[in-house]
Design goal:
By secondary structure, the chain is an all-alpha fold. It has 4 helices and no strands.
Length: 93
């Protein structure tokens, strides 16, 4: 766990980290606002499926899953998901 703390603090002091964190925070807040406006209905993307970020936020909100996930973890997963999506797309070109 100590190594994770060291890694985390080195990332947080990196140039551009605050801007990236602020952007991801905005994405998370936007999705939370959409979920609250939906009042129980399922939000779907243009293909009729729930988005990855909405699923993560529902897991965070719903204690019944037995999984706990904090906001920073959601932002990290969204960043990783976006990176992997772009990696797959560029490898197909």
């Amino acid at each position: 766990m100590e190594k994770i703390g060291e890694l985390s603090s080195s990332f947080s002091s990196s140039p551009g980290f605050d801007e990236l964190d602020e952007f991801l925070e905005g994405v998370v807040q936007e999705r939370l606002d959409r979920l609250e406006m939906a009042t129980g209905s399922t939000i779907v993307d243009g293909h009729g499926k729930e988005s990855f970020d909405d699923i993560l936020l529902k897991i965070q909100k719903d204690d019944a899953t037995g999984i706990s996930i904090d906001r920073d973890s959601i932002k990290a997963l969204l960043l990783e998901y976006e990176y992997r999506s772009r990696e797959v797309m560029t490898s197909q070109v």
